[in-house]
Amino acid sequence: MDIVITGLVLGGTYALIAMGLNLQYGVARIMNLANGEILVAGAFAAFWFWTAAQLSPLLTIFLVAPVAYVVNWLIYVIILRPLVRRAKSRGQLEVDAILTTFGLGFVAVGLMLAVMGGDYFSYSYLSVPVMLFGEPYGLNRIVAFLAAVVICGALYLWLNRSRAGLAIRAIATAPASARLVGIDVPRLSARAFALGGAVTAVGGALISTFLTLDASTGVIFTLKALVIVIMGGVGDVRGTIVAALLLGLLETFVAVLIDPGLTLAAAYLLFVLILLFRPQGLFGRRTT
Amino acid sequence: MKRRTLMHLAAAAVAIAAAAAPALAQDALRIGAVGPKTGPLAGGGAVTFWPNVQLWAADVNARGGINVGGTMRPVEIVEYDDQTNPGETIKAVQRLATEDQVDFILAPYSTGLNLAAAPIFDRFGYPMVTHTATTDKVAELSAQFPNMFFSLGGAQGIATGVVEVLTGLRDRGDIGNRVAMVNVADAFGIELAGAARPQLEAAGFEIVYETSYPLGTQDLSPIMKGAVAATPDAFVAWSYPPDTFALTEQAVIENLAVGAFFTAVGTSFPGYAGRFAAQAEGVLGVGGVHADGAAFQEYAARHEAVTGAKPDFWASAMTYSTFQVLEQAIEGAGTTDRAAVAQYIKDNAFETVIGTLDYDENNNNPAFWTVGQWQGGVFKGVASTGREGAVDVVVKPAWQ
């Protein structure tokens, strides 16, 4: 029971990390390697508001989300849209986007270093135990998990129940055909990218309550997000959630029952197995 | 009219350049500084290394510079970010030596980057007074690189310090025999755990829980649960700053009841007390300083005034002290000749903010702090290999 809860909570954290990238890669077709930097920026905002004004990270996210949305929308419209226009094929766009966002990541790290210095930003928020089934858990982790449930649930419902969601799924499935049925692909792609950025930044704000970050830790989260998105299947919210939970459970199982030193090895073994036997990801569609 | 304005402008520009030049270009000592501003060690570098570079340059220039054979020469720092990448450290040192042609180079930050840069320092003949390199291979390294100096101690010394502190607590009847020990699975953690294990066993301790975890592990609660289940009397973690913070937080949440709680790098950071406040009381960590000493307090006040940040209670003062060693050696040798300065460091003892630094025949500083403890909001040295000012260790109170 203990392992399951710890694993699910960790999985929720992973879902927060990966959900934004899934929207950006799956819908807007931008493999955003600066994703982790957005996450760190969100974490920094939470840290700053907490230390400067004692503003709870749970309130900060309502500030972080719209700001991150606008910033990411601008990034997409100004920097990435020309790439989309220019690209002759999906492959070319992917290469261009990877190179561009790789560079953007460096710019973001530099900006954050200039603004907040290279020091760790670590603070204590809700780091009190809560008892679940007789075992203590950090309240901040539980809160982040609940937020992940809310965010993922809302995204899932929105994508599957609303008209805009339907259009976004159409773009994720077949961008060329989506245009033919009257979907404004460029506009919705920009929105999906911006939304992905907002989700990532909110995730960062929540994660900062229990992880210690600094300006250059973004790349760790980009990598984790990448693994989860590819495992789950590109462009599928369910896939990301399942893959994130699976990874969280697996790492906790290995840490508790075998050896904490093997968690990374186990995670990447799972990744390799999925790539070998289901290269399109758990919920991904086989590409022709 | 137009031409005249231009002439005036040009004249003004020349005048400004002429006024500015002597202070900078002609007689300034150019000092290179390489270290991580980005990458995994950026956080540690931002606390321990870079502020001291800034502080030292400010202090020296406030005095009018370094006295080189009768001329006061201000220092001018040339900085490079090595991205925590040993290859970049080497490239930056090479660039400092050949392109920037600096007079001296400050040793980089952290054990790994120092070891990587040692051959290139050696090739260009720069004295390398390391401040944050902890290694047990001092004799071999100084034989290979005769101008490399070691200040912060080695794994054996630090492990011995921890075992001594635990033994002291046990002999006082404050803790029992059961020790849980964890380490981060990288060079630092593996070396320290390897050094501590036989020493703990030789001292009669029983290691009831031992494990390692990968660098960057995002959930350390399984480890803390494992440690709690083993009901230890003491907890020892050879950890890096992010996991130091995470392990402490988990220990509070899981209510790990131990009489001695030790975490390694990061425990001595001012941010640790900032985050855990009263919970930090009694926590042991690697390092320490003579926190009640006038020299440290005066240094800490200047550090905060000049850089806006507090120094940590371990390697910060050591980092600044090695810069003082370099400064005093240049003044003592009366020249910028690198071989002469290196020889001066070998032959003399230096008064620094950490106390006297006197390198032995292996270029090693034998007297260093090994263990400190948060007591009343200050991280005080409780064990060292011959430093003055250690305070008595106290038993860890329960988490609040």
Brief synopsis:
The complex is a heterodimer of chains A (288) and B (400). Chain A is mostly helical and 288 residues long.
Secondary structure blueprint with pairings:
The complex is a heterodimer of chains A (288) and B (400).
Chain A: H1 2-26, H2 35-53, H3 57-86, H4 90-116, E1 129-132, E2 135-138, H5 139-161, H6 163-173, H7 175-180, H8 185-207, H9 218-232, H10 237-258, H11 263-277
Antiparallel strand pairs in A: 1-2
Helix pairs in contact in A: 1-5, 1-8, 1-9, 1-10, 2-3, 2-4, 2-8, 2-9, 3-4, 3-8, 5-6, 5-8, 6-8, 9-10, 10-11
Chain B: H1 2-26, E1 29-35, H2 42-62, E2 66-68, E3 71-73, E4 75-81, H3 86-98, E5 104-106, H4 111-124, E6 128-129, H5 138-144, E7 148-149, H6 155-171, E8 178-184, H7 187-202, E9 206-213, H8 221-229, E10 234-238, H9 241-254, E11 260-263, H10 270-276, E12 284-286, H11 294-307, H12 315-333, H13 338-347, E13 349-352, E14 355-358, E15 369-375, E16 378-384
Parallel strand pairs in B: 1-4, 1-5, 6-7, 8-9, 8-10, 10-11, 11-12
Antiparallel strand pairs in B: 2-3, 12-15, 13-14, 15-16
Helix pairs in contact in B: 2-11, 2-12, 3-4, 6-7, 8-9, 12-13
